[in-house]
Amino acid sequence: MATNPEAVNVDPAKKILVDGESPLFDRTGMHHKSFPSDFRQIRYFTLLVVQKAPLEFKEINLLEQQVSELIKNAVKHGNRNDPKKTVQVWFSYEDDRARLIVEDEGSGFQLIEHWNRFNQARTDCFRNQDFERMADYVSFTTEASDEHDSGNALFAALEYWDGGVVFSEARNCVAVARSFPKRRRGFVPSES
User: Fold this and answer.
1) Which domains does the chain show, CATH number per domain?
2) pTM of the entire structure?
């Protein structure tokens, strides 16, 4: 049986996982903040979380943008902008890794499997260079989506958070992680 050499070692699309027992949910030693569901203050809340990150982690504000999207999704989609509901955020920045857990009081993202299938089809179109069909997978929307929703934040999150994007079984809590190159401290002599 002949094998297409271009198909060898091609990973399937990255997926959002559902696993409340994931080690990414371990809150030990993490900082914690609790925020009201106030859409106008998302940037401020984000800065409170990101300010503790080492400069090397901020990558021209990519970390800030990704943290902001997670908080925004919790406020908008989880808590439906209800100011009586809160968003809980746990975060840590280690030498070579950032971790974040965001939990809202909503009913959870119940369409994760549907989103994963959509993302797999989108990825397949891209890998197969089927750009006509890819037009069907430009944005992920549901009946609950408004004109500003497209699912693009989730596509970006899977690429950015290389340590995983994992939801709890209730699907109202997401844990993410990203690895960074090890920081060098002090003088490193040359080998010459």
Assistant:
1) 17-106+153-179 (3.30.565.10)
2) 0.87
pLDDT reported for residue 10: 42
- Is the Cβ–Cβ distance between 79 and 37 less than 8 Å? yes
Which of these, 77, 87, 82, 85, lies nearest to 145 by C-alpha position? 77
29 is written with which tokens? 């030693």
Note the pLDDT tens digit of each residue in 110-132: 999 999 999 999 999 999 999 99
